[in-house]
Write a structure and sequence with these properties.
six-stranded antiparallel beta barrel, nine-stranded mixed β-sheet, about 850 residues, single chain, alpha+beta
């Protein structure tokens, strides 16, 4: 059989099924689209569920894909075994009511025996025990009857709850007796390692009903899945996915950086770390390329978990910090041809990994210190289980991954109260839910019978059109009429009103019949139906009415200006910051545009100025804005950029501002960039790790802001008793005066603090030779208390200080110990925890000095008594 590389196998599979008239769809993003049941795409058929369920029409009845997937369910086993990994690629061919079992199995056999040249005497097939049709097909293909194994429902029948389901047939490769159990009846289905399943053909031909019966589907489907890494193992004659050509190249990079030996006697523990880093690198690179950024929730947390886990194992191997970003390039090298987005976003990927790894380096040191303190406490208390609330605090407050906490505890012989952790997590979620505000834009059911025809949108060409009321629903529940001064939802056969989508706000305007008027306050759409939220001001609107719809033109024009400006902004950002920049969200209204984009750091003033300048330059060039409708393939050839989270059909709308910007977009735009007038950036900020946000305005909004600024300058001039042109000098003069006064104040305050330090020592309470100082300070910073502490420590021994700084109804406790007390075993961090607890707070720190916040100021004296009892 051929010794094919992983990339060659992927290409051979695609080419083979294209020759069988299959549409070669690109791998879907790892971020599921319109599927809340999944956090991350984890199988080849997951992005195609909408086609199998009949919710959407597939681009072709025959499809083939190589789908990138991430699964973390077995993450604890990654590195410990040769086959577990978080990232993998799934080859698949699919039929949506076209061909069925005979073609699927025959083509499968042709591919593996004639293209891959697998030896036929090493191949076995399993079928569902009652599937005589599949049995006969395998016999006809030439599979010996003794190598066709019938298995039960658990092994060879695919179903998830009610609905489409069916039998399946799996193809196995016999690795030889050396891998077997030695039993004479050993065959596929045995638990030993001899037979490797590598390709599953699912025949979706039934529907499971509520009574448990099965009915035949009118149009059976085919869904196959073959793990690319698994077939590569077979083709390359290796036992481990980590020995496949492309993955081994990444692993070798880990070995070069670490200098450790691999798979030699005594290297078992470091082997695990090497494999974890290798696997996690693949996942993190692909996830970032698909727009996932590290965060503390959802798929962002999965990514953060992988990066930080890999970074920690790098520390175990002794690799210098900041190594993951360097190794990421090896993933791009071996996979960039098949997945061009890796090459395009290479710099961005490396930056995100570097930033996250640097953050974790700081977090790791802090977290290890806190866990060490926890383990000391558990040792003194005679327990081996860390409480869930403490683990949750590490996760929530310090960003320390739960899995890393578990690993460190496990390595030191401790366990974790997972039930308590999840309880703390749920309590926080409950608080968050209670804190949310509930909006009620449309407080009634707006769903209609799907048999209604899709609304014709005429709003690109016309702002005033005539149509007919197809259906309606009043807020009171009527489906026949909306009365005067009542709100409701109206569905039309034709509309000029743009429905909110793609980040662009809805149109507003008016509707008229011969004897009624209504204000259109909002528009949404679903499955091609436009829902117009209206308030009837004259007469009444009824089903069947002929109606005139008129968009408020000035507002539409303002929105169009801002929308076209976002396209110019997007292109300008890519020019200034790099091609890794991609839209991550947007909001376009009549008064403001908001644009979210992928970038690894805050923009500096020069970059912001450059972007703003480029956009205004393109506005002043009066570039014609063209709109064409074409196929997705043609749009891609034109270089059109697809926007984040948007779905596109076979026919797409391409909006171009000359050669400067070309994007797929369904929004409304100006006819010429000069109509935008002007562009001004208001702010640039971060909204999550790796995602930045720009807010900007155009045209008349800039004028309004300028008028507001003039008024503010006028009011400031009056307040400072200065002419407008002298404002800067006047403000600078006042600041110098204030600075001088503050210096004088600091001198007096420092002298007062010095005297206070001496008085505190004189009045300290002597407890068994230890001078205990407890003191409340109002309107004093913690830094000032640290200064007092340092002064006392400089001239004294055996002094324990417990200070309370009270500011704005908040209290912070500071515990400070002289060095001789620390040497005797006293620990400020442990003391301050108990002290703060008495006032409803908590915290920690080092042995010589620590601080903690608390909520109840009335309990400060109680806290001081706790300190005294601890010292005693």
């Amino acid at each position: 059989m051929k010794d094919n590389g992983l990339n060659s196998i992927r290409k051979a599979f695609r080419d083979f099924y294209v020759s069988k008239d299959h549409y070669p769809a690109k791998s879907a993003s790892l971020i599921p689209q319109d599927d809340k049941s999944l956090l991350i795409i984890n199988s080849g058929m997951a992005p195609l569920k909408k086609y199998f369920a009949g919710l959407e029409k597939p681009p072709a009845k025959r499809m083939t894909t190589c789908q990138k997937c991430v699964r973390t369910g077995d993450i604890e086993n990654v590195g410990k075994t040769s086959r577990h990994g978080t990232f993998f690629e799934m080859l698949g061919n699919f039929s949506f009511g076209d061909y069925f079992k005979e073609e699927s199995l025959n083509w499968g056999w042709e591919f593996i025996t004639q293209v891959l040249e697998l030896p036929t005497d090493k191949l076995w097939a399993t079928i569902y025990q009652d599937d005589d049709q599949a049995y006969e097909i395998w016999k006809k293909i030439g599979m010996p009857e003794d190598r066709i194994v019938r298995l039960g429902k658990d092994d060879n029948f695919w179903e998830i709850g009610l609905g489409p389901c069916g039998p399946c047939s799996e193809i196995y490769f016999d690795r030889g007796e050396a891998f077997g159990c030695g039993e004479p009846d050993c065959k596929p289905g045995c638990d030993c390692d001899r037979y490797v399943e590598f390709w599953n053909h699912v025949f979706t031909q039934f529907s499971k009903e509520e009574d448990g019966s099965y009915s035949n589907l009118a149009h059976p489907n085919i869904d196959t899945g073959m793990g690319l890494e698994r077939i590569a193992c077979i083709m390359q004659g290796v036992d481990s996915i980590f020995d496949i050509d492309t993955i081994r190249y990444i692993l070798d990079g880990v070995l070069e950086l670490s200098g450790v030996k691999y798979e030699e006697e005594g290297t078992e523990s470091t082997d695990v770390s090497v494999r974890i880093i290798t696997d996690h690198l693949r996942s993190m690179v692909f996830m970032i390329a698909d727009g996932i950024n590290p965060s503390n929730e959802g798929r962002g947390y999965v990514l953060r978990r992988l990066i930080r886990r890999a970074a920690r194992h790098g520390k175990i191997l002794g690799i210098k910090e900041g190594f993951l970003a360097n190794l990421a390039n090896r993933v791009v090298e071996v996979s960039g041809d098949a997945y061009p987005e890796l090459v395009e976003k290479k710099e961005f990927i490396e930056k995100i990994i570097a930033i996250e790894e640097d953050k974790f380096t700081q977090t790791l040191d802090q977290g290890i210190e806190i866990i060490s303190n926890y383990m000391e406490e558990m040792e003194s208390q005679g327990t081996k289980v860390l409480s869930g609330d403490k683990a949750f605090k590490l996760y929530d407050t310090y960003g320390f991954p739960l899995e890393v906490t578990q690993e460190i505890l496990e390595e030191n012989g401790y366990d974790l109260d997972m039930e308590g952790f999840h309880k703390s997590m749920e309590e926080q979620k409950t608080k968050a839910r209670e804190g949310r505000t509930v909006t009620d834009d449309v407080a009634w059911d707006t769903s209609f019978d799907s048999s209604l025809p899709e609304t014709i949108f005429a709003g690109y060409e016309h702002l005033d059109v005539f149509g007919k009321v197809l259906a309606l629903k009043s807020k009171s529940g009527s489906s026949e009429i909306i009365h005067h001064d009542e709100e409701g939802i109206v569905y039309l056969d034709t509309t000029p009103f743009y429905a909110e989508s793609g980040g662009q706000i809805y149109d507003t305007g008016f509707m008229y019949t011969n004897d009624s008027e209504a204000i259109v306050e909002g528009v949404t759409k679903s499955h091609g139906l436009f829902a117009h939220k209206v308030r009837v001001t004259v007469g009444e609107i009824k089903v069947g009415d002929d109606i005139e719809s008129k968009v408020y033109g000035i507002r539409r024009n303002l929105v169009a200006r801002n929308h076209t400006a976002t396209h110019l902004l997007h292109a300008a950002l890519r020019n200034v910051l790099g091609n890794h920049v991609h839209q991550a969200g947007s909001s376009v209204t009549e008064s403001l545009l908001r644009f979210d984009f992928n970038h690894f750091s805050a923009m500096n003033d020069e970059e912001i100025k450059a972007v703003q300048s480029i956009v205004n330059e393109k506005i002043n060039e009066f570039i014609p804005v063209s709109v064409i409708e074409t196929s997705m393939d043609e749009a891609e050839k034109m270089g059109a950029m697809a926007l984040f989270g948007e779905k596109y059909g076979d026919e797409v709308r391409v909006v171009s501002c000359g050669e400067f910007s070309t994007e797929l977009c369904g929004g409304t735009h100006v006819r010429n960039t000069g109509e935008i007038g002007a562009f001004k950036i208001l702010s640039e900020s971060g909204i999550s790790s790796g995602v930045r946000r720009i807010e900007a305005i155009t045209a008349s909004s800039i004028l309004e802001q300028s008028m507001d600024a003039d008024m503010l300058i006028e009011e400031t001039s009056t307040a400072l008793k200065s002419k407008k042109e002298m404002l800067v000098n006047r403000a600078s003069s006042l600041m110098e005066e204030l600075k001088a006064l503050n210096k004088e104040l600091d001198v007096y305050k420092k002298a007062e603090m010095g005297n206070a330090a001496q008085d505190l020592v004189k009045n300290a309470k002597d407890i068994n030779g230890i001078k205990l100082i407890t003191k409340r300070f109002d309107n004093t910073t913690v830094d000032e208390l640290r200064g007092i502490s340092d002064d006392i420590k400089a001239d004294n021994n055996s002094v324990a200080m417990v200070f309370a700084a009270v500011n704005d109804d908040k209290v912070v406790f500071l515990v400070s110990l002289t060095d001789d007390l620390v040497e005797k075993g006293m620990h400020a961090g442990n003391i301050v925890k108990e002290v703060a607890k008495a006032a409803g707070g908590g915290g920690g720190g080092k042995a010589n000095m620590a601080q903690a916040g608390a909520k109840d100021i009335s309990k400060i004296d109680d806290a001081f008594l706790v300190a005294e009892s601890i010292i005693k």
